[in-house]
Amino acid sequence: MSGYLPIAEHGVIGDLHSVALVGTDGTIDWFCCPRFDSPSVFASILDAEKGGFFRIAPVNDGHTVRQLYFPDTNVLITRFLTPDGVGEVHDFMPIHRDPKHLRRLVRQVVAVRGEMRFELDCRPRFDYGREGHEIDVHEGGAVFHSRGLSMALASHIPLERRGDDVTAQFTLANGAAATFVLEQCEPGARPHPITEAAAADAFNRTVRFWRGWLSHSVYRGRWREMVNRSALTLKLLTYRPTGAIVAAPTTSLPEHVGGERNWDYRYTWVRDAAFSLYALLRLGFTEEAEAFITWLTDRFGDHSMADGPLQIMYGIDGRAELPEQVLGHLEGYMGSAPVRIGNGAAAQLQLDIYGELIDSIYLYNKYGEPISYESWTELRKIVEWLCANWDRRDEGIWETRGGQQDFTYSRLMSWVAIERAVRMARYRGLPADMVKWLDVRDQITEQIMTRGWNPQRGAFVQHYGSDVLDASLLLMPLTKFIAPKDPRWLRTLDAIGRELVADSLVYRYNAKASPDGLEGEEGTFSICTFWYVEALARAGSLDEARLTFEKMLTYANHLGLYSEEIGPSGELLGNFPQAFTHLSLISAAVNLDRQLG
Asked: According to DSSP H, which parts of 429-573 are helical?
């Protein structure tokens, strides 16, 4: 399929409400407004013809490109080098504390050296290309009106109407600049171009925001540049009004090109809570951890105990209904249909989320602020529900659609939930049914050790009665369920290394040996590779752990960003950038640093 940049050939900018993906060709091919989970304005990454885009690039095709972030920020620079000169596009979204402030995307074009002729092509396609729009062209730019959203493109450069879109060509001499501002506006508004001085001020304020935020990081280890980029990416994926973190800001970027494993990740998974909080707390970002904990504890009372106290995921505003739809009019990235919005997995039973939830609260109680009595009262209800329901079959961490199983990982995290609750109760002297909790905790331990262990395979396995390995079990020593040098664990680690690891990259499981209800193959899962690094380090294999970690760093894109998976040719696959991957990088770096001493 032509017309699609590789996923890796993108940077990302944002304002803590939404993000835009900017390709190395100067094209914004993904942008939702006004929130992460709003309908798209530009989505040509999901359909080159129908999705819409906003491109600024040299007229001359004979150019090379470099893309970088302004140091320690999420301000993106795309540099074009031609025989006649060098030009740059500086892309950023100003940060505003007022949640009611309308979204604004700034594209500042600069002739760095020599003279360069640029072309602008702005083609919005509202509501994933389902909603038509009208256009008004004015002296100061153009306004695009759709039924649900209006966007103004302000410009001192005259814009030419072409159907329902606008285009322009302009030449910049050495040192000259032109700024284009695309912003959400009220119906009937007119565009108001900003001066270059105002544009420079917005640029400087945005740079100061990101640098000021990052300055609070306490990480001083060996991999500071990659850890800082991962921290900036996690912050970029945070929805400021609520503190929720989206799993990724995109939908339906495929796990296998041409396949059906395409999901909407613009929501907040409870599972991400423990890992996100751990990463943020280890770096010293207690304010973000507090906001996320507040968002989490607000979910405690959302659902009846009969259906389980929690869903596995929620909208960034806390809503529980995330109906899944297929957008049949979009062909998908490189023909990878279907394109989905919403996520039907929200209704799945995944018992492991209770372990991740309570572990996150335990960590915050330890490193942040003590849990309140009211929150503890609600948490006790969750623990009591889990004590009665931990032995149920579920869909597991990977949200398979092949039927429920007795997943070992689900039992492991049920153990974590109760064990951490016991620790909190003892440490704080909080009321709890300790006799029952300890009895259930020990039942789970014995069950995992007898039914989760396959003596013929000499390893812990994906679910009871199977002989399939699963990379999620790399968390067994990380959660302190088993000693990192326990003989059973070392045999499992060796088995995973033989069967699920390919040149340091780790597969989740063997989909052919354990059908998951979906067609097609998938790449290696980046988070699993970082878990593997930690497991190796804790097992004492420091040289192998460090080499695996260093190799994994080379699979990031040119900006240090990761998607969910890495394909057979080293290409990035899945939604991008992926919060899970970046937070696991932080965790692996911090723990490997500590092990190396």
From this structure: 434-447, 475-478, 487-499, 526-538, 542-553
